[in-house]
Design goal:
The chain has 262 residues and is an all-alpha fold. The protein has one domain. It is 77% helix and 2% strand. The chain has helices at 6-14, 18-40, 42-59, 77-94, 96-121, 130-139, 143-170, 176-202, 210-218, 222-238, 246-261, and strands spanning 63-64, 73-74. The protein has a two-stranded antiparallel sheet with strand order 1-2. A hairpin with an 8-residue loop joins strand 1 (63-64) and strand 2. The protein is globular, with a radius of gyration of 20 Å. 29% of the residues are buried.
Amino acid sequence: MDTSLILPFIGWLQALSAESLSFLTFSVCVASVLLLFRLFGAPGLYLYNAVIVIAANIQVLKVAPFLFSPEPVALGTVTFATTYLATDLLTEHYGKKVAQKSVWMSFAAHILMTLMMILVLGYHEPTGDKVHKAMVTLFAPSPRILLAGLLAYVISQFLDIFLFEWISRLTQRRQLWLRTNVAMLLSGLVDNALFSIFAWVILSPEPIGLSKLIFTYILGTYLARVIVAFLSTPVMYLSYWCLPDPIGFKVRKLELDVKEAA
């Protein structure tokens, strides 16, 4: 009874191709970003990034077949890539300090969630408890994967903010499409590279070869991030139609410009 609505919906989703489901996932993420931005402003995007970072790190445990790959691909890339969109929205509308605060809040949220789940896993379970075993699979992190993910996330997000703000100044806040794409494409590549190098080479007890590192782990999911970056460009322009407080925003933007000029 409790799952009479959810399970049929999941069954309908499973009938879709992986590519179609990825586009649907991106659409839901974009709609959520714009809605939360419209309703709550910067706090709404803080919420989005914190939740999505956690969700993407769970999604990555599942793989699915895609037409472009001979092997099943780990999921979570599309979802995770939209956090860079949210960060760029924060940088564009509120400045780099507000965007950097979002990065640290997402970092803290992931650490806190991991700690809470480790504590609940410490409770003794009845023999053969399937729920406990499932929770161990999902929430008992590999220390090297956790460390690699957090390091790559913080460094690449700060790079995204720096590039976005630098190009914004260089173009005198024109060419929004340029700073959006350059920032997301370069920071996404850095994120993939840092995570792969830390997780599968530096911290791994059995480091992988250079060819597999580059073509399987670094470039393997980068195509998805390229597509997300390009599709995010119109969303950045659309965000100006979703301002939570147009008058207050203009005042804040003017204050920000004055501070930056000083």
